[in-house]
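During the no-cost extension, the postdoctoral fellow (Dr. R.K.) reprocessed legacy sequence entries with the updated structure-token encoder. One reprocessed record is reproduced below for audit purposes.
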Amino acid sequence: MKLQIAQINDRKTTYINGEVSVDDAVAYFESYAGYICESPLSYKLELRRKAKGIALEASVCAHLSANCQRCLTLKSFEVNTQCSLLLVSQDLAPKSEEYGLSADDLDTVYYEGDVIDIDALVLETVLLELDSRVVCDEECRGLCSQCGHNLNLGTCGCKGF
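Re-encoded structure tokens follow.
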């Protein structure tokens, strides 16, 4: 979804409920460690104009799956996350010679023109919540290094297993 800045009310909070399509989410997440999107990502947004920009409060839900990195079985999981961001026009971004990163900058997103790409913000919010290593269970025994048998299903008979 592309949001026109003019759609954000000057005096009261603007509420938006929406979804990122499965096709858009699949294209985005498959390029990051093979995550699979199982359904559209849903989000609820609250936007308020502030002196420095637009305050965004987001609540996002995603149903994803990925292969366990030990035994390769598919694990499904849900990601529910919330974030608070300040959206600021690129025109107000600090110049490189005056830039020093502060804690407030970590929650600031700069946009160009008069349109904000909401889908990109939602997808990035979910991505930042994902584990870099998916494991189906902390007790997962993985695969036999000799024959490839899933050791969670029992021993394989190879020496040492």
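The mean pLDDT is 88. DSSP finds two helices and eight strands in the chain. The remaining legacy entries will be reprocessed before the final report is submitted.
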